[in-house]
Amino acid sequence: MKIVVLGATGHVGSRFLTEAVADGHEVVAFVRRPEAVPPHAGVRVVPGEAADTAALTAAATGADALLVSITGSTKDATFMQRTLPPVIRAAQQAGVRRVVLVSAFGAGGTAEKAAWFMRLAYHTVLGTFFADKDAADTVLAGTDLDWTIVYPVNLKDATAPASATVVDLDEVGAVPGVPTLPFDAAARALLQVVTDPGMIGRRVLVTTPTGWRPVR
């Protein structure tokens, strides 16, 4: 596949590049700071802003999928709502039907599945941030694109190997405690989501193998 990545310099996006090219995919890293992307065989770096529809359309033309792994400040109440619509227009104009959006656990109704102390944080300290994520998620889900929205749990930089579980949100009854995944594990899970047609039209949780409980 040819995959365009927004957020290729981030913790997850940068690791996604490595995973994708190792798996034989071609990657276009569409970034504000091209110098921040280390050289990778199989990666073409294109400078540009995510909200620049014309530039992103040009970069994405001929691609099979678009991964959106960007986020704003936790104090910015509208970052994703401002940024995602131009990205969606670019995908539509470029003829890229497959769009995968990395949201966050705590948005899109997922907070109600969290432990009580996490729900408190999501609704108070991070309420504005997650409301913005939620609104953007709804915008993408309202399009006719082949979308998937991914809700990763807490992520960290860790070298220890760890696997991730990808599960449909409708099957998740609870996410106990604070399950935490290495960035590398989340990136591998994202590649699985991007390349699997069975994920189209779904909202999925990415968590640890024991970091969820099924609906009873």
The radius of gyration is 16 Å
- Please report the number of helical segments: 6
3D shape: globular
Distance between the termini: 38 Å
Strand order of the largest sheet: 3-2-1-4-5-6-11-8
The amount of beta strand, in percent, is: 15-25%
Averaging pLDDT over every residue, what do you get?
94
* Element pattern in H and E: EHEEHEHEHHEEEEEHEE
List how many beta strands DSSP finds. Answer: 12
The biggest beta sheet reads:
8 strands, mixed
Q: What share of residues is helical?
A: 25-40%
Class inferred from helices and paired strands = alpha/beta
- Are there runs of 5+ residues with pLDDT below 50, and where? none
What attributes does this structure have?
216 residues, alpha/beta, 8-stranded mixed β-sheet, two-stranded parallel ribbon, 6 helices, globular
Structure characterization notes:
- The protein is an alpha/beta fold and 216 residues long.
- Helix content is 33%, strand content 25%.
- It has helices spanning 11-22, 53-60, 79-94, 116-123, 127-141, 183-195, and strands at residues 2-6, 26-31, 43-47, 65-68, 98-102, 146-152, 154-156, 165-168, 172-174, 180-182, 202-207, 213-214.
- Strands 3-2-1-4-5-6-11-8 form an eight-stranded mixed sheet, with helices on both faces. A two-stranded parallel sheet has the order 7-10.
- Helix 1 crosses helix 6 (183-195), helix 2 crosses helix 3 and helix 3 (79-94) runs parallel beside helix 5 (127-141).
- It is globular, with a radius of gyration of 16 Å.
